[in-house]
Design brief:
By secondary structure, this protein is α/β, with parallel strands linked by helices. The protein is globular, with a radius of gyration of 19 Å. Helix content is 41%, strand content 17%. It has a 7-stranded parallel sheet with strand order 3-2-1-4-5-6-11, sandwiched between helices. It has a single domain, classed as 3-Layer(aba) Sandwich (Rossmann fold).
């Protein structure tokens, strides 16, 4: 049984990864303050404090570290570029250096946003990134720092959705919350991505660790779609009014930071190296709906009460 240390464990991926694996692995989460009733061990620590990384690795002695800690709010990164660099570049570099020194396997989470979205078709791991904005730039720098400090690490570019601690961390929750409250909203028809259920992301990452993979990988859903279409699919699955979602172009938005048009990523490399296909979008959406029916959102939210 591997011992997994999950940084940023109260985030969308961190929490669902812990929930997925706490019965089959020893899970230890790192969180500053949000989780008070988690069914797994949580270490309260700010990893930006001097000596925190070495201290937590030495006390937890994990076999694997999955780094989910990040400043992922795009607008917040623009407003606080120094904090963005600390969390998205400097901390991953420090973790990678410390893990490599101790022989600990590391997974570092990156993002599809490191591409500018100008390419037609799917971007592969060999395509040259062109980040737009502070968030994307600091995440790309984090990727490069991790692989420089620890060539045995896995860097995974991801895009996932699922149920979160606060109920508002994923695009699926955005559509679900608005539709169930009879609120109209818009969805971008020209913002393309490859969504994956976060639980599937967690399972794939663990399989990669078990197989001893390393290097840069795209871990996203195999199907590309617009964010508008994604909202329609969520509405249909939950029997909600899809007519409340209006199609809109990203050009007409008043977003502070420009979003890329096409963030579809090729997953051929991970499929080949794992030897199995990734779960289809419909499979993930069915599970997302089943989780709702089974009270899963309420279950994970109870961990902070």
């Amino acid at each position: 049984m591997a011992r997994i240390l999950i940084t940023g464990v109260s985030g969308l991926l961190g929490l669902n990864l812990a929930q997925e694996k706490m019965d089959t692995h020893e899970v230890i989460g790192v969180d500053r303050s949000k989780l008070t009733k988690a069914p797994f061990k949580v270490l309260k620590m700010d990893l930006l404090n001097p000596g925190a990384v070495d201290s937590i690795l030495d006390s937890a002695e994990p076999n694997w570290v999955v780094n989910c800690a990040a400043l992922a709010d795009i607008d917040a990164c623009e407003e606080a570029p120094e904090l963005s660099r600390l969390l998205n570049t400097d901390l991953p570099a420090q973790l990678a250096r410390a893990c490599f020194k101790r022989g600990i396997r590391l997974v570092h989470l990156s993002t599809d946003a490191i591409f500018d979205g100008q390419r037609d078709g799917f971007n592969s791991e060999l395509d040259v990134p062109n980040p737009r904005g502070v968030y994307a730039k600091t995440k790309l720098d984090g990727e490069r720092a991790v692989l420089t400090e620890d060539p045995n690490a896995i860097v995974a570019r991801v895009n996932f959705y699922g149920w979160s601690l606060g109920g508002n961390r994923s695009l699926a929750e955005f559509f679900f919350n608005n539709l169930t409250n009879n609120k109209s909203m818009s969805g971008f028809t020209d913002a393309i991505f490859c969504p994956m259920l976060v639980n599937d992301t967690a399972r794939v990452l663990v399989r990669m660790l078990q197989k001893g993979l390393s290097g840069l990988y795209h871990i996203v859903g195999p199907q590309a779609m617009s964010k508008y279409q994604f909202g329609i699919e969520v509405a249909r699955k939950f029997g909600l009014k899809e007519g409340q979602i209006s199609p809109r172009s990203i050009h007409t938005s008043n977003l502070t930071v420009k979003r890329s048009h096409n963030l579809s990523l090729s997953t051929n490399k991970v499929v080949m190296d794992l030897g199995t296909p990734l779960p289809e979008f419909s499979t993930g959406l069915n599970e997302f709906f089943a989780q709702y029916e089974q009270g899963y959102p309420q279950k994970i939210r109870s961990y902070q009460q």
